[in-house]
Amino acid sequence: MMARLRAILSGILFGVLLSLLWSCSSSSQRPKQEDIEALFADSLFKPVNDIPSVDAIFALPAEAVTEARRAFERHNFSSKSPLPVHQWLAMYINANQEGGKSHFRYQDNLTQVASLTYDQRAGNCMSLVIMASALADIFNIGTEFQDIAIEPVWDKQGNFYLVNGHVNLRFLPTEIGNTVYVSSHAILVDFMPERTLRGYQKTLISRQTLTAMFYNNMAAESLVDGDVDRAYALVKAGLKAGNFVPALNTLAVIYRHRGNNHLAERAYRYALQFDPKDMTTLYNLALILGEQGRLEEWAEVNKVLELARIQNPFYYYDMAEHAFDEHQYDAALTWYKRAVERADYRHEFFFGLSRTYWVLGDEKRAKQNMERAFALSREATDKFRYQAKLKAMQQH
What we know:
There is one protein chain. The chain is 54% helix and 12% strand. It has two domains: 1-295, Tetratricopeptide repeat domain (Serine Threonine Protein Phosphatase 5, Tetratricopeptide repeat, Alpha Horseshoe); 313-395, Alpha Horseshoe (Serine Threonine Protein Phosphatase 5, Tetratricopeptide repeat). By secondary structure, the protein is α/β, with parallel strands linked by helices. It is globular.
């Protein structure tokens, strides 16, 4: 992976930004396919042959199709008041509900095709929406996909900051034979019940855009894993599928990993034609400008970035880490607290608070924050590390 880069004049280390599920371009204009084709540089990468086709993304195995059809037939046969098929399917998937015979649950893991999500009965929001759409196809149920303008959810993996968004879908009413239903309306299907969607702007997106988002997710995940060739193949497939503007940022990051800043800058600047204030693209462009000593251009971009940077919780986390390493513990405590204020779901922020309180002699708060870090952690290695530190604290 690319080494962390020091932003010129900032005194703090930053990684590159990637967007997962993140929003459509703010411009009404869309990239032209011929312009996108001109951005590709296949000669820099090894061919990858196992990229899923668009059809494969939404395909379900024959047994899943049979299982769903038989379940609907059983419902019609046994119920005195059969539900409309789109309403029944929402209950069959059991999104946003507890219990049920066929409960599919949200699980923050890798993006995957419909067949794998169906088999595992779990997936992230993109994977589950893809699977739900595939099930709707079985019954010819119309769908509407929605990009939800939630507050950004920040993540950090390796040298990457990931900005996560959210998508869901609605099942539209359909007619089956001569059946007449008393009530028939669109059904929202969302797999994250803890998220309150009221008040958030919703943008309808096409299945084509959803597909492009899917490829971009997989490309970002491959890049985090260090598989640059696969990441390139995936982002190229996504750009061909839907001209998804944020994927241009992913393409540029991939070129950076191949050491080609010229191609990366071309992709960044092309993306900015459609969304001139996109913070992710501006941030990554600023890294190139800073490294190349183009300080006047860097300063212009950084004026726009500075306001956005203070919304990034990892800005404060990196400041805290730097202060801690310099033994400036009071300052570290202030920075860690500011990081938590903006993202109280990151275990490493509470770990930072814990070890700072411990150094400052506040053992009670150190233990409380270590317990919080343990509760929020998902990876076994993190849980083991926090549990061991808690045990050591308790024995102190």
